[in-house]
Amino acid sequence: MCGRFTLTRRDFDKLAAELDAETRPEDAALYRPRYNIAPTDQHWILREKNERRQLLPARWGLVNSWAKDAKGAARQINARGESALKRPAFRDAFADRRCVVPADGFFEWIGAKESRRPIWFHSPHGELLLFAGLYESWLNPATNEWMRTFTILTTDPNDVVQPVHDRMPVILPPERIDEWIFVPAQNREAHAQRLLPLLRPAAHDALVATEVSRRVNSVANDDAACLEPANNSELTGEAPRLL
Fold it and tell me: Among 10, 73, 137, 221, which one is least packed by beta carbons within 10 Å?
């Protein structure tokens, strides 16, 4: 599962350059570093159009094109990679609208519900994590405005995530990005079928796990302090830990 994540790059133009992506001038004003991205928040997706990568804003939580309202978005923040191509909610998007969701970490929690401790999974070298995603465009009948939404595909955990959670987001290798977001003019479902082997756990050395501040537990907190290592009082006397 991926319930919250981060993208802390400070400069939008540099992020676009890192992804080799085109952007629209008006989108730069929407960007800010994020330390606690929650379901239904606005984020960014990378897609392919006219043989170019595009970095575009989108809301997290897929709303199907046939939906009457956006109430189901929070229930579709994730899609199981093993079944997404078969499920009606995700099948068309898997064949026609694959994307990459750029991030630099994601959270899972350990401990009792009343004292949950957040674990931030991130690259040991500060590299981007490129989540496999699907996107849709939905016309809001109340406002007659289009809204772009996305979901993140998940898979079995690798050795780093497994002690904390039984699912993790699919993290694509940078060299497979163009293959993932390319949509052929014909035989789209057959092409999508060939991509299923990409939906596997990340290599064991792709992530490290850091216990961070419990500020993350509230979606109202979205600043750099969220990623500070858990202090002694939060750990009830234990030292901050790198899992």
Answer: 10
